[in-house]
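Long-time lurker, first post.

We've been arguing in lab meeting about whether zinc ion would sit comfortably in this protein at all. Half the group thinks yes, half thinks no, and nobody has a model to point at. So I'm putting the question to the forum: if I give you the sequence and the SMILES, can you give me back a predicted structure of the complex? Inputs are below. Any interpretation is welcome too.
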Amino acid sequence: MFKKECPWCSEKVSFKQLGSRPVEQKPKWYQFSRSVQVCPYCAGAVKVGGKGLWFLILAVPSFLSIIIELVFKYNFMAEFNLSSISWTLLALGFGGAYLFTKLEKLKNV
Ligand SMILES: [Zn+2]
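Top reply:
Settle the argument with this. Predicted structure of the protein with zinc ion, as tokens:
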């Protein structure tokens, strides 16, 4: 499953397991009160970070081709024999997004 190491205690946690708690600091007058995600093992505050989201850009052409096919009934990836490249990019995009996403320590909250 989609599990990442906690930066505080090194336990593997899935995003679903992350709990939340209110921020300890009092919100300033211009801040909305907010809560932070916390590790279920050590209650350390974490945020989802890393460069993973950039990899989703690789999946964009494939998404576009799927949308275009749905709307116009025209598969331009197949038209140019790009179907396998399209699936490769899609897999790379999601694989990279998983590999390069990590949990980061959130301090002073
Ligand atoms: Zn932890």
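For your lab meeting: The two ends are 29 Å apart (CA to CA). Residues 3-105 form one domain. Whichever side wins, do check it experimentally.
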